[in-house]
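Thread: Newbie trying to understand structure tokens

Hi all, I'm a second-year student working on a class project, and my supervisor (Dr. K.) asked me to get a predicted structure for one chain before our next meeting. I've only ever worked with sequences, so writing a 3D structure as a token string is new to me. If someone could post the tokens and maybe explain what I'm looking at, I'd be very grateful. Here's the chain:
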Amino acid sequence: MFAFATLSLAALLGRTGLGLALAGLFLLGDIALLALMAFIAPCANCLIIATLFALSYAAFRAAKASPREPLGFPWLLFIWALLCSSNLVSLAEERLSPWILQGTPEASVRIYFSPSCPACRDAIMGLLPSAKDVAFIPVAENDDDLNAIAVMQGQIAEGSSFFLAYRRATEATPRPVALLSATQEASLRFKLLRNKAHVFAAGSNRLPLIQTHGLAKLPGIGSNAPAADATLPLQPLEFEGCSGQPSAAPCPDATAR
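---
Reply by user tm_fold:
Sure, no problem. This is what the structure looks like when written as tokens:
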């Protein structure tokens, strides 16, 4: 409030030189804060205020500039733009949550899976007892996966359970084909690309990727286990080495890390 009140007063009095100096000083301080945010966490409201500081500096600079007194390259605005852009990218990544085929963002378990992944099938069937607290997040590794996910999406929209839709899309002979318009296909590809980006962001390069929020009710954890702590961060788990044979539980040779 003090900064903007001072800049407004300088503008009303026509003191462009003083206003430019003050706006540059405030913008320099804002650059330091933007650099700090880039290493900690982006803030949408802070970026709005930062934009107002940049616009104020640009306005005083434009008022001060003249053919007789060129001001040179706007280095402060250039550095500000770089830092603001990096914060905007971080903010977009933070706000762009994964697309969930079935489940809720508050689910205790998130499983990233591919329809063509045998290990994913074993992990999905192993989660059957706790399906009510699981978010199923699909990832397409090829066009066949894209078609299977589209089939599952259509069947779930019609009221089918996830497990029934999953088995129909992956085990039926011949495989059902989804009829998608160009717009629907583009939208689905974008959602799946978003999910794949979350897998890579979690530091994983293989599927399935299982994330638990607190102490989830996974198979093997008794009903007398302590309640999940909602304040704990998501912890990634990966199942590796599955044989790919159909079973009702995670494959016995899987290792979790």
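A couple of things are worth pointing out once you decode it. The radius of gyration is 26 Å. Confidence is low (pLDDT under 50) at residues 220-257. Feel free to ask follow-ups in this thread.
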